[in-house]
Write a structure and sequence with these properties.
Elements: E1 2-3, E2 10-21, E3 32-41, E4 46-47, E5 54-55, E6 68-72
Length: about 70
């Protein structure tokens, strides 16, 4: 889910997201990455998105979702 908390619409935005364990230092190696492209999202709006995950290890080695933090790079 992408939420536009801003006062301006988002148009033609590409977000690169890295997944890390919740306690990992910022910039530490990622568990996985994905890119989300937003064609248009109004101010204050939200949009459900889907993107393929580039896992940088095995999916079996991924911690539970509650222990994962998403960072926009």
């Amino acid at each position: 889910m992408v939420v536009n908390h801003g006062e301006e619409p988002l148009v033609g935005v590409s977000l690169s997201v890295a997944l890390r364990t919740a306690g990992a230092a910022r910039g530490s190696p990622a568990l996985g990455r994905f890119t989300v492209k937003i064609a248009g999202l109004k101010a204050g709006g939200s949009q459900e998105v889907q993107a393929p995950l580039e896992a940088l290890g095995t999916l079996a080695s991924m911690p539970p979702w509650r222990q994962i933090r998403a960072e926009i790079e």
